[in-house]
Amino acid sequence: MRKLLLGTTAVIGAALLAAPAVQAQEAPTVRISGWVQFDFAYIDDRLDRQAIGIDGNTRRQQQYDMRTDSRITVRGGGKTATGLAYSATIVLEPTTANVTSDQVYITLASPTLGTVHLGDLRGAATLMQVRAPLPFGFNTATTFYALRADFPGNAASSQLRDMFRGISHANDSTKFTYLSPQFAGFDLGFSFSPTGAERSYSGPARSVAGFNRNQIQLALRYRGNFGGVGVAAGFGMVHASRPTGATGVRNPDGYTFGLNVSYAGFRLGGEYSFGNYRGRDVGRPANAVMHLPRGNNQSQQWIIGAGYSFAPFGVGIAYGQSYQDFRDQGVANNQGVVRNGRNFRMETLQVGGTYAIAPGLSAFALYHYSTTRNQPFLPAALNGRRNINSFIVGTRLSF
Amino acid sequence: MDFGGKQAMRRFVTLGGALAITGMLAACGQQVRTPGADEYNLNPEQNEVRGRLFGTDGLVLFGSRSQRDDGGAGPGLGVNAFLWRATLDTLGFMPLVSADPFGGVIITDWFTPADAPGERFKANAYVLGRQLRSDGVRVQLFRQVQQGGQWVDVPTAQRLNTEMEDRVLARARELRVQSAGR
């Protein structure tokens, strides 16, 4: 009996130890997916009550509007018997005029050596950022409704929106990205982009005007579970050289820290970012005029958020503040009013919920509130203050 | 803190090298895994998507969707690919005499465990179909012990066969999860 037990243990043990890491090979496939979103927004903006509205005309703005947005993703790829997954991805963005490519990249992923992205997509700091829990549509609200371009033609003013987006958010410049495997809960990321331009290499890339150069992104992330309590913490940074020919401005950079705790459907967390940038997208001025001039204070922002999921429902709330220095913008707006934007501050509060109607089909609602102090470019009557209330309801179908 | 192209390239190479080494070192450990695409903010707009009409990966235009739908009846195989590979993985520590991927039969040679030199085992495994099912594999172990210089057949416990089948099924599940996670 003892021998039988010994033999049993031995052969099972040998089977356990000898199992090599062989993967299931997959033939190449081409897949298409995407989503379409429709939403309706009601906006109450203090600026709209002025004689001069957002577009500079003497009429009030429409207070409600509808919008559609969509993406189509085409991905082709397969997997070798050694486990190397390979794919090419093209994300298409339909517009009223044509269809543009939002992201284009090749991905190579090894089960143990990590992932390499080659092409136009977000960098490591964005991909791995641990953000505060945000309600569905948080970015939609701040992007499309909250602070619309105040005065067309004023490039700096048009950037005073999206103030709470993530680090280097919309940066799809052509880049190399390496994302390490996860080990003991930790993983790392690194990106390099020579010119900051998308679809680059067409012409003398080194002198692409208006684009940041030699952008580096780094990210470190930890995710773990302690007795059912999930913890995620992250650090990310982006650094670049200012565009060729740009003078009197600092090299753009940004740093972000984030922490999330989750338990039984609850999520609670926050993020803090700072750096030499201005306008939207922490650490990545999208517009040449938004590079932080020398002598101005660094920008910073923080967000705290909480969420709870009880399928098919999900609810969330987030509050944030953003500080930026516009002391150099002592320029006249289109009314000839000069306003010093030093210590510009924006606060936002958003509360939202979602409901999953069917697989791929969900509905959402979001209340959004923003207020600003010392905002440059506003009519004098507002004294740099602006309050916005908006309510958005919508639906999204993903296929 | 301005730096030119050469300096940036040096940083690029240094940082890239450091991360690659980190990755390789990490790969030596036992708990290394490459995070799936859904663990990154690939497109913040798309991250807000909850479920899809055509499953997690969308609609297949070209290539074999049936590979997923039937649980992996791979090309060139007459039986389920996950079960077949899992059986090979599990019995791979024993010398193989025959492996027929169309009939789903794997026959091993005699194998003597290092810590039990007085006995040896042989296994026949049968992958029974194209579906990834818990009853889709049968393993029959044979055991002999040495008595007076001769190998003598000894009956094996049914529990041993079941345990080997469980190992195969667990491995097949791993392969299926890894495949689905890409």
Features:
heterodimer; A: 399 residues; mainly beta; Porin; 16-stranded antiparallel barrel; 4 helices; 16 strands; 9% helix; globular; B: 182 residues; alpha+beta; Alpha-D-Glucose-1,6-Bisphosphate, Chain A, domain 4; 2 domains; five-stranded antiparallel sheet; 5 helices; 21% strand; elongated
Number of helices of chain B: 5
- Domains of chain B (count): 2
The H/E string of chain B reads HHEHHEEEEEH
Helix- and strand-based class of chain A?
A: mainly beta
CATH homologous superfamily grouping of chain A: Porin
Work out the number of β strands of chain A. Answer: 16
Task: Compute the CA-based radius of gyration of chain A.
Answer: 24 Å
Structural class of chain B: alpha+beta
What is the approximate shape of chain A? Answer: globular
Which sequence of strands runs across the widest sheet of chain A?
1-2-3-4-5-6-7-8-9-10-11-12-13-14-15-16
* Strands in their spatial order, largest beta sheet of chain B: 2-3-4-5-6
What CATH first level of chain A would be assigned?
Answer: Mainly Beta
Report helical residue fraction of chain A.
under 10%
CATH topology of the largest domain in chain B: Alpha-D-Glucose-1,6-Bisphosphate, Chain A, domain 4
Instruction: Name the chain pair whose interface involves the most residues.
Output: A-B, 95 and 85 residues
Question: Based on the structure given, which CATH architecture of the largest domain in chain B is correct?
Answer: 2-Layer Sandwich
Task: Please give a quick description of this structure.
The complex is a heterodimer of chains A (about 400) and B (about 180). With about 400 residues, chain A is mainly β. In chain A, about 10% of the residues lie in helices and about 50% in strands.
